[in-house]
Design goal:
- This protein is α/β, with parallel strands linked by helices and 320 residues long.
- The protein folds into 2 domains: 4-178 and 219-242, Rossmann fold, CATH 3.40.50.720; 184-216 and 247-285 and 300-319, UDP-galactose 4-epimerase, domain 1 (Alpha-Beta Complex).
- It has helices spanning 13-24, 61-71, 85-90, 92-113, 147-166, 188-200, 221-231, 250-260, 289-295, 303-319, and strands at residues 4-8, 28-33, 51-55, 75-78, 118-124, 169-175, 178-179, 207-209, 215-216, 219-220, 240-242, 248-249, 269-271.
- Helix 8 (250-260) crosses helix 10.
- The radius of gyration is 19 Å and the shape is globular.
- Bound molecules: NADP nicotinamide-adenine-dinucleotide phosphate (NAP) and ligand F7E.
- NADP nicotinamide-adenine-dinucleotide phosphate binds at residues 8-9, 11-15, 34, 36, 40, 57-59, 79-83, 98, 122, 124, 175, 177-178, 184.
Length: 320
Amino acid sequence: MATRALITGITGQDGSYLAEYLLNQGYEVFGMVRRSSSENFGRITQIQDQVTFIQADLLDQASLVQAMRESRPDEIYNLAAQSFVPTSWRQPVLTGEFTALGVTRMLDAMRQVAPEARFYQASSSEMFGKVREVPQNELTPFHPRSPYAVAKTYGHHLTVNYRESYGLFAVSGILFNHESPRRGHEFVTRKITDGVARIKLGMAKELRLGNIDSQRDWGYAGDYVRAMHLMLQQDEPDDFVVATGRTHSVRDFLEIAFGRVGLKFEDYVAQDPRFMRPAEVDQLIGDSTKAKTKLGWQPTVDFEQLVVMMVDHDMALLGS
Ligand code: NAP
Ligand code: F7E
């Protein structure tokens, strides 16, 4: 019988790649989706017919219990969240409800309905925030710098707590930034590659950004969902950092992205205070030695390949 996986956040960037990956591994995939007045399946149209969708919401405990009853999952991937850092200052309470308490609701539904299942929590490098050491590993203390990061830190500790309290197979993947042509347009990488394509194709004249000196450890989402799956195949539940081990500034990203279409970013990029944050995370760089040795995980796409992949995708998308 096929292994059954329940994915929350299946309509998001990671959910779409993970669902494709698990279907290719022969899984039966159940996707949790929240009700909306218009369908939001843009990233999963290609696999829509192979997934069983269950309507539920992280805010509604009864719907989560019912989703687990219906899917009877062997593996649960909790990817749903309010995931955009700036929105977390505008909607701190809602971010806490989705991104923090949503984890409690999921874990408690699992404890009641599917205690034998394996649970993956989407933790984030944003928890390291104002970093205490460089590079960051599984033992680095957290210093979150946004309501989003605080909420993720709660979800992270709760996952560990449910593992220790109830013996659940519950793990956290501390994933550093990962991007793709499916990244939401508000995140800086996609905003840049979309902007580059618009400028090159004569559809825009400039690109307005915030702090271009911040540095991130950027990888490819398609690589990172493999690590999520591997974490649930281990003998013992454990938490892992997933990162490339290299850091680059937004400025580096701009240089390669504009360079790809023969332009100089300095001629088009303007700084706009609207995109500056009340508290910034200046530099992140992850040490994923544990994932490499214990999971046998390696990234396959480097920074330059990632930028080029995203620019080429947006050029083709807008140019067609
Ligand atoms: P994303 O593209 O923003 O997708 C978020 C997903 O969550 C969407 O499917 C969204 O559904 C769903 N969702 C939001 N609120 C919900 C609610 N109340 N009930 C049910 N579903 C809800 O995020 P992503 O980049 O794929 O990231 C996946 C997860 O990893 C998130 O938890 C994120 O915080 C975390 N993470 C991401 C990164 C990264 O670099 N991408 C790094 C570390 C951790 P709708 O389509 O209906 O909005
Ligand atoms: O910002 C700077 C901004 O919004 C990256 C989420 O997936 O990864 C993501 O969080 C950097 C920041 O991602 C603009 O100030 C400059 O320093 O692409 P981002 P993020 O905040 O790092 C982590 C791991 C997650 O867990 C999150 O869910 O870019 N930046 N100018 C800008 N950022 C944006 N969005 N827009 C700008 O105009």
